Amino acid sequence: MFLIEMFVYIGTIAFAISGSLVAIKKNLDVFGVLLLGLTTALAGGVIRDLMIGNIPPTNLADPKYFFVSLLASIATIIFYERINRFKHGIIFSDAIGLGVFTAVGANAALNLDYSQPFLIVAMGLVTGIGGGVLRDVFVREVPLVFRKEIYGIASIAGSIALISTYELISPTVSLYICLIITLTIRILAVIWKWNVPIVHKKQANKRTIHS
């Protein structure tokens, strides 16, 4: 399907840029920048395919996604100063990747005739956040999905929207809805500083004592 293919390319490029920007800010060498860009762009799809038994994973069996990621990372290195002028470049490119791969992952489960909503949401979530989680772990950061950031919740909301509309309207429109909802929630959460409550040590200790 042409739309899905375009979605994958857009998400791949966005995540590769996101990973490369993080690597450059962490002062990694060229190989490190390229590797982190590739990991961010490809890992979510690889994890998803392994979970649903699609072996070898599409991202590895078809080298075009590898080369698209590689070119995006190289372009980020070359044009870093220009890209870095965009204040929220990492956040925006990461949000695009999250929205695109959430839609692609959930749609992959539906195309395999999986009907369990939990499984479909899980595939969207894993595909959406997998690359970003590994990116943050590799640079010794707590992954966004584990912090107060509204990140995984945006992916879950998008997948639920896809499930809810998939049989009511055109599947193509459902994909757009999933992408837009995930992207919008993530961007608005950053702009308006929506956060998930943090469990502080003192609060946890008090609850333990009282119980």
Can you offer a commentary on this structure?
The protein is mainly α and 211 residues long. The protein has ten helices and no strands. Helix 1 (2-25) runs antiparallel to helix 6 (89-111).
- Which structural class is indicated by helix and strand composition? mainly alpha
Number of helices: 10
> Any low-confidence stretches, pLDDT <50, length ≥5?
none
How much strand content do the residues show?
Answer: under 5%
Average pLDDT for all residues? 89
* Main sheet overview: none
Count of distinct strands: 0
What percentage of residues falls in helices of 4 or more residues? over 70%
Morphology call: globular
Note the quaternary state here.
single chain
Which radius of gyration do the C-alpha atoms yield? 18 Å
**SSE succession:** HHHHHHHHHH
Ends distance: 55 Å
